[in-house]
Amino acid sequence: MKRGIHQRMFFPSLYLHVLVELQLLKAENIVSRKKIATQAVAQRLHMKPVIEDGQLGLRLV
Asked: What are phi and psi of 27, to 5 degrees?
C-alpha cells in the first residue's frame, strides 16, 4: 500500500488529539481539565480562551 499525502493530512489533528489526551490525564482536577480542553478546541478553531464573569469561553482571534 502506498503511504503519502493522505496519511500526512490526518496526522496533525491526531497528534494534537493525543497531546490533549495526555495533558488531560495529567490534570489533577476538573477545572484544569476544562481549561486544557477549551484551549485545545481554541487552537483547532483559531480562537482564544477567554474568562468572563468566571465563565470559560471562546472568542475569535
From this structure: -65, 130
